[in-house]
C-alpha cells in the first residue's frame, strides 16, 4: 500500500475517470429531462417502473448483475482480451455477480429507507437531503469500505488470514479515501439524477448508470491499453 496523500490519490483516480464520468453524468441528466419533458419516453419509463414494482428486490439483484458483471465481463473478453478466455474469467464473473447482485439489493433497501425518512417526492429539498446522506454518510461509513474490502478479499485469493489489514485505519486512509474521492467526482451528480425520479425508477436508473459506467470504462481501458482507471475506480468492474 502507498503511504502518500490519500486525497491526492483520490484526485488522480477522479482524473483517470474524468471522461466516462462526464459522459455518464450527461446521460443521466438527459434521462431525467426525458422523463419530465419528453412525453414519448413516458411509456418506456412506465415499463421500467412496472417491472420494478412487480419483481421488487429480484429486479434489483438481476439488473445489477447484468449491468455490473455480465455486460462488462463480456465486453472485456470481446474487446480487451480479443475474444480469448483467461484463467480467471469465470471466477471473476462469479465474484462480480455475487457482489453486484448483493450491492443492488442493499442499495434498493437504502433507497426505500431514504423514502421512508425523507419522503418519496422529488422536490429539491428532498433530493438534496438524500444525496447528502447517500454520499457523505452511507458512502464513507458503509458503501465504500464494504466495496473496497470485498475487492481486497478477492485480490488476496479469498483468504481470511490475509485480509486482517482491511480493518485498520491505515487501510481506510490509503484505500478507501481515494476510492471515495473518485466516487464523489462521478456519482454525486449521478445520484442527484437518480433521486430526482420517482422511487420505482431509481433502481432502474441506477442499473442503467452502472451499465453505462462499466461499459464506458471497459471501452476506454481497451483503447488506452491500461487498466489504471479501473484499478483506481471504486466500481472496479473488470476482473484482475
The backbone outline, from C-alpha atoms, is: globular
Q: Could you describe the largest sheet, including whether it forms a barrel?
A: none
- Note the beta-strand portion: under 5%
Counting structural domains, the number is 1
Radius of gyration: 18 Å
Number of strands: 0
Distance between the termini: 17 Å
* Alpha plus pi helix count: 9
Order of helices and strands: HHHHHHHHH
How would you describe the oligomerization state of the chains in this entry? Answer: single chain
Whole-number mean pLDDT: 84
Structural class: mainly alpha
Helix content: over 70%
Q: Stretches where pLDDT falls below 50 for ≥5 residues?
A: 224-240
Write structural notes for this entry.
The chain is mainly α. The protein has one domain (6-33, 59-230). The chain is 78% helix and 0% strand. The protein has helices at residues 6-16, 18-37, 42-55, 57-80, 89-118, 124-155, 169-195, 199-224, 228-231.
